[in-house]
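Reopening this one. Same input as before:
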Amino acid sequence: MTDAYRLMDLVQELTLEEKISLLSGQDNWSVAGIERIGLRSIVTSDGPVGVRGTDWDDRKSSANTPSPTGLAATWNDDLMEQVGNLLAREAGKKGVDVILAPTINLHRTPLGGRHFECFSEDPVLTGGIAASYVRGIQDGGKAACLKHFVANDQETDRLTVNNIIDERALRELYFAPFEQVEETVGPWTYMSSYNQVNGVFMTESPLQEELLRDEWGTHALVMSDWGATRSTASINAGLDLAMPGPKTPWDDMRAAVESGEVTEETIDVAVLRYLTLALRVGALRFGDEGDADNAPEQAAHTDESVTDWTLDEETRSFLRRLATESFVLVRNRDVLPLADSVKSIAVLGPNARAGRAQGGGSASVFPDRVSHPLEAIRNRFSAAEVSYAPGVLATDRVPVAHGQFNQVDGKPGIVLEFIGTNGEILDTRHHRVAQFNWVNGFGPDFKPEDVAEIRGRTTIVADEAGNYRIGMSAAGRIRLDVDGETKISVDSQMSGDEDFVEVLMTPPQHVTEVELQAGESVDIDFSFISSRPDEIGNPYWGFQLNIGEPFGDPETEIERAVETARNSEVAVVIVGTTEEVESEGFDRTDLDLPGRQDELVRRVAEVNDKTIVLVNAGAPVLMPWFEDVAAVMLVWFPGQEMGNAIADVLSGDAEPGGRMPTTWPAPGAVIAPQNVPEDGIVRYDEGVFIGYRAYAKQGVKPLLPFGFGDGYTTWEYGDATVAEPEVDEPEDIHGNPYETLNSVTVPVTNTGDRPGK
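Same output, byte for byte:
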């Protein structure tokens, strides 16, 4: 008997209650199993830059790849398959079956807040990169999840917005990458988005059945985005799984069956898809009841079986190479690569000492360590004098403490104590990164309702004299003491109307300053009491401890950076966006670099004609100083090997391998379709004309066109030749629509003295 028939028989063995239990999450990340049929729980986890697992916990670290925009900049299918393989291995370590990635919505507008989490403005590049990524994951025995189906292209009012899109734009742009992955690989799951398309919420849209299944022929399971399920009737439209649990609108599914709103046959089909997924990921074992072979197979590894979360050197080297392959050199006036004989380098900018390795939101992970630019440049150019000055702050928000300035019991980080309702200590934990979001509980030993308070302690040791900014960020009641004196005591309850992810990533922040001399230390004690579910509508246990390096008068600081550049042979300025600009939960209002970063670049370039600017951002920014500097390289959010990869490319040890995956506008020539809803509606009136199509149609020259990028060698181009396809019956070609087009070939010869791309 084939697996398909065995699965259908298995569905018939289940009671209605058992079937319904497989249609909704049992908690935030998993669906319950049924032991008597050999079915264990299926576990999901966020991606796409690493597999976080079910715990938002830095003690269980994750390999952190470049952001998807950076991945797409490689234009390299083989590398993307390797990325997928890596994520599958990481999922095995975390006990995860389904990786909630890739995100293949398009860069419709550069103002999209989640732009960094998507690959490209182009549907073909998006589909090709995504297909290889999915293939790598699923070849590793884990399920990928194509999301968000469909047109989840802005964050503003994302839970309710109604996107009005014509058929041509849907077919040529927004459906296209999903279709390409379906035709070439076949994803095991899809995720339906929050938004409406043409007046229908996607979790209730007939597109799930009519397009995905009837037209494209997918056998994949379709799950909801988290909290997107609106009614029991959505199962009739093709939705198979409502996430997360334990409470969903599908809790009333039995009543819907009894009333005739939903048939049991419809439920059977959804359960069959779920069991098919379970079989694919090893969560279901066939066999006779009571047979040992029928025992639910556990994941190859689980959190409990892993004792060392340190990344192996082979994976670290791969992530380093992956980052260099994503960097796009967009300007070079004979300054790069830097010679080993360089005598002095000024490393400047708000992202120099601690760069931004990843964007914000549900896609973020905790790497075991991050290589930052300043340290890596000092290590690579050890014979040169490397000076540092931040120059400006990109944000008023104080960064999360990462153990750079703080330690406890001789180790970087903090210690937390979980205090029970009777004042007892339930658990004590050491953390390196002081950012906490317990959305799925605290672990198996105690429940959220058992915890009355979380207390913590650490010691700040000043590495230079100045005013250190110390704070806490939380929705809840917080207290922070410095050497026994209370500096912060705030009760910051939320209303319940906020975007929950935004609250998780950028909660309200409260800051104090402490003046310290170099080598001086102060003890920090802090506490947190949660906003309860009845106050904000969600269980919220999460907070940050924040520590910022000394920063003086803004004008004095920028002058210090300029003088540092003036006295150096080369100036490397690292600029970028912040968590308040690029993150899930909100869109951008403009494309300017935050703060006075443009001024910093301009003033440094005035005193140093070898100014190199590295742009640490996942989405387009305006660069009004572009023509005034010697070199510009886009490094995106490059993952945990950020600093080492930057040093590799600056030195010429590696080639900047990337090419533009999306169009970057020139100042004063930004084409940005509407992304702010009017009366709850966003009209895609531009049709198919987004990205490079829009610039071509309007005759506007972008600063950085789609596909552009430079390298460290020179090329000679030969004459183009055109060949017609060898296809007798074009109408019989399916899958790749480009198989019936003419092909153009151009010979290219490397005329330089080094390999290139």
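So the earlier flakiness isn't reproducible anymore. For the record, The domain at 394-550 is CATH 2.60.120.260 (Jelly Rolls).
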